[in-house]
Design goal:
mainly alpha, Methane Monooxygenase Hydroxylase, Chain G, domain 1, globular, two-stranded antiparallel sheet, 307 residues, 60% helix
């Protein structure tokens, strides 16, 4: 106990603070409880259905869980894309965490895909427009942290990219712009307008910061130092495939369940052509293209991963 008190005294003396103040504070502090630490009451008060259909609660909670998992993804990416270049072993460890989080997103989708009655969803969804999962800013932050902006532009539009293009100009070509474009009015949908009003400046700021520090460029920097390993490449491929193929495909499966397919297809709440938007074979979003051969890139989203 005496040694511990000396360590505490040293800690606060080094901060030019009075250790007794902090020890007295500890004396008066209430013991911590699980519900206060996790903020359970606050967390459970965040669900506000807009209708009386019971399954709307499933819809809300699942999407909130998704946002929390995406926060974990961003937490790991922040550590990999800030500060000094991590060692290959740390890089690999964090990538396996990213894979686990994304697999959790993928496997948990059955909560949505099998956990709501179609007749309820078809009714309460009408009260949600123009809100859409398209408006998940965290999903966009993850993309911007993982790969250069050019890789988020559909292949058929990459020829339009010029060397002198600004980030703002490149954003006009990014794949999700197309999903937020109303072909009848030739204007941005309200869903996209609201989304950009709320988040576009933060997207620009992150894209600028990631120009030299995104995950892909950091991996290439490791490779240039001769620190690349087969295990690291395998982990990168697995995360790329899980995030950009496996997860969108189960999302697409859920959309087919609730919105139909073919001639009976119903528009998503945000109005996007969801089948073309969700299926990875159309957008070919690949975070780490040099880790995939030409055939794998061409058949992206159509074949199983060969890690």
């Amino acid at each position: 106990m005496e040694a511990l008190l000396k360590q505490i005294e040293h800690k606060y003396r080094s901060l030019r603070e009075d250790p007794e103040t902090y020890l007295k504070g500890l004396l008066h502090m209430r013991p911590l409880t699980y519900w206060d630490y996790i903020q359970v009451d606050a967390l459970l008060s965040l669900q506000h259905p807009r209708t009386n259909f019971p399954d709307e609660m499933v819809f809300i909670v699942y999407h909130q869980v998704t946002e929390l998992i995406l926060k974990l993804v961003r937490h790991e990416l922040d550590q990999l894309t800030r500060g000094p270049l991590p060692e290959a072993s740390v890089f690999e460890e964090k990538l396996h965490r990213l894979v686990r989080y994304t697999r959790l997103l993928t496997t948990s989708f059955s909560v949505m895909n099998q956990g709501m009655r179609c007749e309820e969803y078809s009714q309460f969804r009408l009260a949600l427009a123009p809100a859409s999962g398209f408006q998940s800013a965290q999903f966009r932050y993850v993309e911007l942290q993982c790969t250069p902006l050019e890789h988020l532009i559909p292949p058929q539009r990459r020829a339009e990219v010029r060397p002198d293009m600004t980030i703002e100009e490149k954003f006009q070509l990014i794949y999700w712009q197309d999903a937020g474009y109303d072909r009848q009015t030739r204007m941005k949908t309200l869903t996209l307008q609201q989304f950009e009003e709320r988040y576009l400046d933060s997207f620009y700021a992150l894209a600028r910061r990631m120009e030299k520090d995104n995950l892909y460029l950091r991996y290439l920097a490791l490779a240039q130092q001769g620190k690349d390993t087969e295990a690291l490449r395998s982990a990168l491929r697995l995360f790329d495939y899980t995030f950009n193929v496996s997860w969108p495909l189960v999302h697409l499966q859920a959309a087919h369940t609730y919105l139909g397919s073919g001639h009976e297809q119903t528009a998503a709440t945000g109005g996007s052509p969801w089948e073309k938007y969700l299926h990875p074979k159309h957008q070919k979003r690949i975070f780490f293209p040099s880790l995939w051969n030409e055939e794998e890139r061409q058949k992206w989203g159509e074949v199983e991963l060969q890690a």
